[in-house]
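tRNA dimethylallyltransferase: structure, please.
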Amino acid sequence: MVKQLILTIIGPTASGKTSLTIELAKRTDGEIIGLDSRQIYEGMPIGTAQPTDDEMEGIPHHLFGFRNPAKPISSGEYAKIVKEKVVEIRGFGKTPIICGGAGLYYRALKTGIFEGSVSDLPTRNRLDQAYENDPVALLDLLRSIDPEYAEIVHINNKKRLMRALEIYETTGKTPTEHFKDQKKHPVETMNLFTILLNWDRKIIIQRIEQRTDEMLENGWVEEVQELLIKQSESKKVYPALNSIGYRQIQSYLNNEMTYDEMRDDIVIRTRQFARRQVQWFKKEKIDLIVEM
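Here you go.
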């Protein structure tokens, strides 16, 4: 078990986590480890708000843009990689600082994740199509399999709903069963000192709108076009292209919505996502809340 405290900065999207963490890294001889479910993918720097070389200011960053977008990653695998990076950074006499907004990945580090938490792409693709066809039927399926866990899964939380069913299909056990097993047989966790950045909702909405416009101005549409070409050439599905913003831009490219409709829908979906992040972090044990 990693006993030494690890400084961890969390918060909703567009809350200024990256800039604060870079300042802390400067003062502590630190290196930054990302905790984001989309910033891990290569070829997606604009739409996932990966820090640029200028923004990094010479501070080493880990787990940004390192994974092929055709390869999904489970929270268990992510936690394992983060732990390895912590050991590596400390081995160089540096201070690891974790930064991100992925609630499930954070929980995997803080309280552990059950053994066997893996991703199965064919199953995920099938569930994705099933959700698009009839999300109500998919939620009803989860209710029949795991009524306890289904109580905390909203029908609009596509990722969580699909992941619950994917876990069941790939392991033969429901999420509830896995969580109960985890309590009986605790797995290795990390000793985090967690700082949560808390903003007034109106300000977060303004920051989301501003950042969305900047992303579009910086070439987000072109980034999606390049990814679609690579996806076609590789003949592999890029699950990451189902993320907020990437879906809307594809609809725009297919002439299914106007530019303004695309932009507004991205903002709305991002606002909803930020609200879910805030609700998730309210359930976590936080060491320090910073009112921004």
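Notes: The longest strand covers residues 2-10.
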